[in-house]
Amino acid sequence: MANINVIAIMAAFVVYLLLMIVIGFWSMKKTKNAEDYFLGGRGLNGWVAALSAQASDMSGWLLMGLPGSIYAMGTGQAWIAIGLFAGTVCNWLLISKRLRRYTIVANNSMTLPEFFENRFRDKKKILLTISSVIIVIFFLVYTASALASGGKLFNTVFGIDYHIALTIGVVVILAYTFMGGFLAVCTTDFVQGMLMLVGLMLVPIIAYAFISGDFGALVTQSNTAAGYDGSYGDYMSLFSNNGKPYRFIDILSNVAWGLGYCGMPHVLVRFMAVKNEKELKKSSVIAIAWCFISLFMACAIGVIGRAYLYPQVLGAEGTDTTAESVFIEMIDKVFTSDIALPFIGGIFLCGILAAIMSTADSQLLVCSSSVSKDIYKNMFKPDADDKRLLAVSRITVVLVAVVAYVIAWDKNSSIMNLVADAWAGLGAAFGPVVVCALFWKRVNLPGAVAGIVSGGLLVILWDYIPLIQGQTLGDYTGIYSLLVGFFFSLLLIIVVSLSTKAPDQEIVDEFEKVVQYKEASH
Length: 522
Prior knowledge:
74% of the residues lie in helices and 2% in strands. By secondary structure, it is mostly helical. It has one domain (2-521): Sodium/glucose cotransporter (Up-down Bundle), CATH 1.20.1730. The strands form 2 sheets. Strands 1-2 form a two-stranded antiparallel sheet. A hairpin with a 2-residue loop joins strand 3 and strand 4.
């Protein structure tokens, strides 16, 4: 029976992966120039833009990391989810419309570095160079983490050798990203976002229906078996962390994850690509609703999994399981029962793969656009035509995937902290500059340069350089580097901009044009 289950699950994976490749072929026929490859011709509808942005953002963290941390330590771990939801709402309601308008007015900018260059009239391409380097470095690590997660998923579910599983995932992601570019990535992300949402909603509901007896008592028994330091009330409290009172600074640091959104190139590019502002408004509603439901249900998986999987206790001493596999274990238990089909369970397991792939493909494309559009064309070959640019873009996708593949080769490497650092680095380097560029007409080129450099460097200093008793500032204070880096960068932008020459009248006039922008004028 076990072999039949594995075959059924594998069939579901094969169907899913083939669908992604088919979408890549379909998208390739519609990709005729650079704007198509990088922004889908600015023709995304509301549903695709919304689910693509959210799916590319959440990654495997939504289905593995967040439920696992709540399963292990209680609902106090939900503060990161609360911060991310707040950041998502602010990003869609405050940033999306203004960014889309500005990138159109600012010489039809197709990437974030190109927008910075056009916005601040950076003729020496200082911002373009710095931004492109930061994106490539941080997204290489991001992409590697996603590829490694995919390898570990295949390894866990099928027992396939990690390196073979890693190779399969890389080949499929590379295939549809190489062929179809942004349109393929966004279309596959739409499918993946829907799959993630369905899995997040149905699995915990079905699992809860199977639970017999007192739910609280089952959770308490599971906590006791795992040596959890706290009562059921502590476990369910937002102000308790693994049985201990949550410090205010810890809560603030977790909520600060939401600040990163306004500096994430792979999310911001979706705003730039929406067909029109009417579709953008629809996208905002869809994205915010998707985000709320997904984050809430991911938290529910952690709590419900405590009771549903008992007497099995994930991560307990003497076991080879981890808390992060709670969603996988719940799917396995639900869909190997007599009333369910393993193939359906395989489809829901594909939801985890979807979360991983939807992030990896977006990061590949962002790296590709930074190298080919921002570095190759804007710095070395300004006369390169669309055919040459598309060729360079696709070659770059392959090269970036290969480098990320090499980074991800070590199956024992722990990259969760690197992912957190990458989020902090991108958020602190780009977030304050994006906000100021869109909403403050006095910000100038020196201020923008100071903000990007200081934000990125402070995160590196905070997270990697041991300065106090052999500890980094992050370890010593417990404060997330994004919280410090974001506001330090913002402060420097303001101080440097006010201390140097005001922007030229041409830049101010363009800012006012964006404020008064009408869709019909485009």
